Known about the structure:
By secondary structure, the protein is of the alpha+beta class. It has helices spanning 52-65, 85-93, 110-123, 131-149; strands at residues 29-33, 43-47, 72-76, 96-100.
Amino acid sequence: TQGTKLAYGWMRKGQKTAVKTTGSRTRLNLMGALNLADISKTVVREYDRIDSYHIAEFFIALRETYPVSQKVHIILDGAGYHRSKLVKDWAYVMNIDLHYLPPYSPNLNLIERLWKVMNEQVRNNHYFASTTLFRQAIHRFFTEILPELAGNLSCRINDNFQVLNPASSS
Length: 170
């Protein structure tokens, strides 16, 4: 959302500091696909809303970067629009394999880590006077800042998950 995201700051003890913010709850609906081998090749598109139709549209945008002959694997959460027949049919046509995360596990969705980096770089402690400036800053992150940062993000955005042994009942 466009509102100022307060993340850190200093002020003298006993004093209050005013922070510019907006009452706007303007949000951008972004869809992204992350390539772990090259984070700078992340594909991100903005849509007026997220639904099955726009996910199918995103698959087409994804194929502008990755040819249909190349199998693509997409990891999704369990939202209803991710599991719709339209999305599954388009994935099949576009040579995309869909993999669904277990419920309540956003920590396993690597694109969430990228959204966090984007928020740190763009929104944290930053006031946007208008929706246009907010939108421009987000798009600038993906077109200019991310390609510069990509090489340094492998320690934060990776598939190095800790594997735990199942608990035994004995």
